[in-house]
Structures are given as C-alpha cells and as structure tokens.
User: Fold this.
Amino acid sequence: DAGVTQSPTHLIKTRGQQVTLRCSPKSGHDTVSWYQQALGQGPQFIFQYYEEEERQRGNFPDRFSGHQFPNYSSELNVNALLLGDSALYLCASSRLQGGGLGDTEAFFGQGTRLTVV
Amino acid sequence: AQTVTQSQPEMSVQEAETVTLSCTYDTSENNYYLFWYKQPPSRQMILVIRQEAYKQQNATENRFSVNFQKAAKSFSLKISDSQLGDTAMYFCAFMKHSDSWGKLQFGAGTQVVVTP
Assistant:
C-alpha cells in the first residue's frame, strides 16, 4: 500500500498565476482533506471532500477550490496566487463510513511545497 | 470555535531521558478527540497517540503516554526513553466528535530535539 501520495513535491509559481495540486488517498479511504501549513505554524484546514462534494470548509477565500474524482483522488486549485499562499499543502485521507476509531484514522501525505514569487 | 495552544516552541532532551510537551485547548464541546502528531523532516504527519474525551483512562502507546485533564482542558504528551528518531515537530490536534474524520484543529507545534 503506497499510502497517501501527493504531486508534485515542490512547485514555484508567479504571483497571479493558478496552481493545481493532486492527492491520491490511501487504499480503502473515501474522504480527502486539505491543509495549508505556513512556515513555523501548524496546519490549517482548508476543506474536505467526500462523494465528490465539498463537505466542510475552513476559513479560506473562494480562490481555493477543489475537486474529488470517482476514484476518490482529489485536486486543490488556487487561483490568483498571492505571496502569502506560499506554504506546505498537506492532503489527508480517511474513511468516513468507518466502524470503530481504528478504521477512521486520518493518514497524511508528504505534502507539496508551494513557493509563490 | 476551538483553539489549541502549545506554549513550548522547542524542547531539548538527551537520549534515554524523558520529555513532556504541553497542550491546552479551548472548546465548548463535550465529545471530542485529541491527538498528538509527529512531523519529521520528511514532512509527513504521523499519528503518535489519540485520546477520546469520554475515556478517563490516559492513552499509552509504547514509549508515548498522555496526561489528559478534561476539566483543565489540558493534554500533555510524555516521551519516555527518548531516541534520536524522536527528533521532530510535535503537534497537538483537536477534533469534534460531530465532525467527520479528517477535520483537525492543530496547535503551532513544539520542536523536539533529542541529543546523544
């Protein structure tokens, strides 16, 4: 099992551009959550996808959008990039329809480091 | 809204010694979960230990144990017999029971450095 995989690992974009980050969840998981982790801070919840719909959203502007595909993989899109969007973007997968606590642990990928210049 | 506070930016400990990381949180919820995650230089967040708020017994996982004080809203992590591989950022996290799995509120983290 490859676990949660994210691509690309690093990315450099220019202010004003658009970016798409990708996440493949752990096998058997159906829910994907995205987090933004600025340097020296804890991760901040962006949004969560289940059954191809956004279920919950954190305090992020509409420039941040996402998508989930039928195979449960997900994309995070950020439009009109700002310098402040530079961060590590983490994807976490979990299984919503779980039995006990052990079935629904969130697993994280290694993240995509986005630098906006 | 929930807040999670980790007041120790960095902790240093020698191999084989014990270190305790503090975490406090603020919530009006009664049912929730608390977690400690480890983030090594590889950047991947790894679950260390979790605690369900309705359980009075403190969780333990090998060398890792917690001291959960619900009334004080405190959730500290003790690392015993520290190993060089324990060097990492440690994040305390909160999740409401009513939230679907994966929506976590994290603290700012504590950098743990284990020295030989």
